[in-house]
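Why this split exists: single-chain examples teach little about how molecules sit against one another. For that reason, every record in the complexes split bundles all components of an assembly together and asks for one structure covering all of them. Below is a record exactly as it appears in the raw files.
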Amino acid sequence: MNQTHSDLLGRLNLDSLPITALIKNPGTNEIVANVAGLVMLVGVLVVLFILTKFRLWRPLWSDWLTSTDHKKIGIMYVVFGIMMLARGVIEGVVMRAQQAMGAGSGFLEPDHFAQLFSTHGTIMVFFVAVPFVLGYINFVMPLQIGARDVAFPVMNQISLGLTVAAGMILMVSLVVGEFSTGGWTAYPPYTGARFNPGVGPDYWIWAIVVSGVGTTLSGINFAVTIYKMRAPGMLLSRMPLFCWTVICSSILIIFAMPPLSVAALLLGADRYMDFHFFTNDLGGNMMNYANLFWLFGHPEVYLLVLPVYGMYSEIVSTYSAKRLYGYLSLVIATMSIAVLSFTVWLHHFFTMGQSALINAVFGIATMLIAIPTGVKVYDWMATMYRGRIRFNVPMIYLVGFLILFVIGGLTGVILASPTVDFQVHNTLFLVAHFHNVLIPGVLFGLLAGYNYWFPKAFGFRLNERLGKLTAYLWIVGFMITFLPLYVVGLMGMPRRSYSYTDTEFVPWLVLAFIGALMILSALLVFLEQLRVSIRDRDQNRVPFGDPWDARTLEWSISAPPPEYNFAIIPTVTKRDAFAEAKITGQAYGSDDAYEDIKLPKNTPVGIMLCVLSGVWMFALVWWIWWLVALVTALIFLLVIGWSFFVDNERVIPAAQVRQEHQAWLAKLKATPPVDRDKEFSPENLGYAKTELAGDA
Amino acid sequence: MGLKMVNRLRIFASSAIVVLVGVTVAHAESNSFMSPMGPIAAEQKAHFLKIIAITMIAIIPVFVLLPFILLKYRRSKKSVDYRPNWGFSLPLEITMWSIPIAIILVLSFAVWKATHALDPYAAIKSDNPTINVQVVGLDWKWLFLYPDLGIGSVGELAFPVDHPVSMTLTTDTVMQSFMISALAGQIYAMAGMTTKLNVIASEPGQMQGENTQYNGAGFTGQKFVANAMEPADFENWVQAVKSNGIALDADSYAVLSKQSTRAEAHAELATADMPKDMIYFTLSDTKLFDGIVHKYHGGMDGQTEISQEVSQ
Ligand code: HEM
Ligand SMILES: [Cu+2]
């Protein structure tokens, strides 16, 4: 990397563009890099074109970008997650292609391969899994506890803005400069200034810091929402299990994100200001980084997976038409996992030379997590036992999850044993393991939840047939891609290898590549399902909001829900309040207690902070100091200035609420309810003739 | 659940793994602890299979019961024992919690024992004398120093079979992870610090050694041959290195320690008497290793100090 430096542009110059490399040194590697950049640019242009052609700028601005509605913010999170998922999966497939051909040297250069695994890992964790999960929590949790919004709607918007800005700066690294080659963990001293003077690690650092702030704010927001904003009678012990997992996840976010931000900032101090926290010399010690990183990193996987466990819990009881088995056990298990997840971080570096005693203690602590996790699996099975199971798309993901996750759990227990970890650490065995827990454990749940809650969010059901095809492709694709990696890992292939000489790896890696192509096709069918469903939306409308004969409060209101969520805040007397009301025939009643509803006004502060923090990161990466100073000042001015606007609520008069709600109820009463035989027919308008039964 | 059952499960699990892995790596030279060439790796493998076998007790019920439940209670069967409000059962709760707890208890004992028994820092007891090796991770090759024998090598770590090998590791660059899978697990090596690894081979043969921690473009080439030799062969090897090696002094170390692949370093340093891919050294300065570790401890910038330390 050319290190010229100017006052105006910092270290940015023509050599920072991949096209320069292509002109100077044409080859497959440069072509791949440029095509990737080009695809992204074309994507941006297409979006801009569509927005302009269909005159969507204004609605985009006033209905979405400036909205403080938790439902819209949730949806925007998920849209962002899907975009990033597409990039992450494509990168995964390119890496699988490289390794399938890697017996010689494949088609990529080592550095390019390293950027791929670094961006892929960073994107999948921070910009796919996290935003997806935050998006679902945003959309679902307030509805489930009977709230009208989250506790801090504007802060919610800011969280989204910061996360998106950080994701975008990763996209920018594709066309300006290069990304880090240090993996998603960015271990120094490799990522320090001496060994990596370029911009790569700086892109990583600022993306992590900024998105970390956004995520932390979300954690605070969700925790306060659950503690403070539950509907009357919604005791903690009556909350849907999903909300319990959200509390645990929020606690994990609040305690786990700061160590990551600190680690990244200290690494930044090393790189920018010649500090020596993690350098080899002058008293630096990279082991401190490993500790800080994994102090975050292990809880991180649980803050992702716990809400998904919660989603699986909702799904399994809805589609088994049965109360969730072992609610108390599941709550205890969730809390235990949350607490234990802070006591095991050392298992990520059993091989750093500490004593056998320490390793044994942390190994056993790690295995303890298998206890509550195992209980959860049994609880889900007990929920299905003596139920009436319907195999809707979410259930297919659930079954795939249960079977595959058990294998992931087994390999987790294997890795928890320091002795074995000495052998399989840093090999593809580990790569297989964490994909084995993250894909069935997190991604499948997110896809299941997508099929489950989509009708609630948009008012129409998704195409069932294509949904099933997607699920099968994901599940089978996953198995073909990742199970062979266990074998290659045991054969000793290190992770992050762009090439290898042992030809015995080849058949397994070719198999894995074929699996990756299946996953790619799963992604395409997933998009096709969305296209077809939008096309056929008029045959699949569910305005009455309960297409699955479900149990919790979010299903008791229209789909899509009104912006104020509940015309009348429900009073809760039991767990699974809506199921209970349906069984006793008290659902859809109205006691005419309408009142004026206050909602937060739209505000552009989130999107402005998104843009400003994006520019701020870019300026920092490229050492454009005047811009850093300017944007820092603007950010302060904006936040302080905005806090002087106190007129930030608007009122929806009770009369309007009554009129809307009564109209909806009148239509519902005029519609025949449908049973589960007609779940997929156009007659299913979301008014369920419940098959749930009273106390047996 | 009787012991017999556990044993049967264990046999089942091991045969499954052997079919999966063993067959594919079954040759005299080994890259993997699945075909171990020393007692430590053999025990690691046994421990690995044991964990699988024990954990199966919790896992097999899922594989058996799940399809059963899914078939029996699917909606179309309209089964009569539909219990929509069944949400708690004390005996079931007790079973659900106690099975995993019992399994983890058993596993914990196994892990506790194995972790202590196979501690890489623990010296290996043997009647044969121990071979001391100092390992320096460089970008992108490993340098092996035999301080007692006054030799060094790149690309080949030779040692006599049935003799304990005691290694002290550091790097003169970023963190790396040193592993000879067929003998024992990996251990990190970090600049300015030392870690330890003790191994012993029980049969002669060649094994692959490698770095498993990504450290840049030459990462995948940072492999070496670990060569367990009959004692007499080892003697000959030492003599060959002594007579063919070049002096490892400040100049040659400077060439060796700059970022380069082993082949590039070979091209620059090796003489015609050295085998392809290997570089042999004679050590005049037996304190070289300490110098490499200590240069990061002064108040000075590590990189500039190197030549002074080495030439002292
Ligand atoms: C969907 C298909 C996916 C494919 C084909 C795929 C493929 C890959 C490949 C080839 C690697 C590099 C392995 C190596 O180091 O040799 C990798 C690494 C990784 N993947 Fe995935 N992956 C997928 C999904 C995911 C998901 C869903 C997540 C997380 C939610 C994820 C997280 C990671 C992480 C954290 C790494 C490690 C990056 C590093 O080494 O720093 N991947 N993946
Ligand atoms: Cu962990």
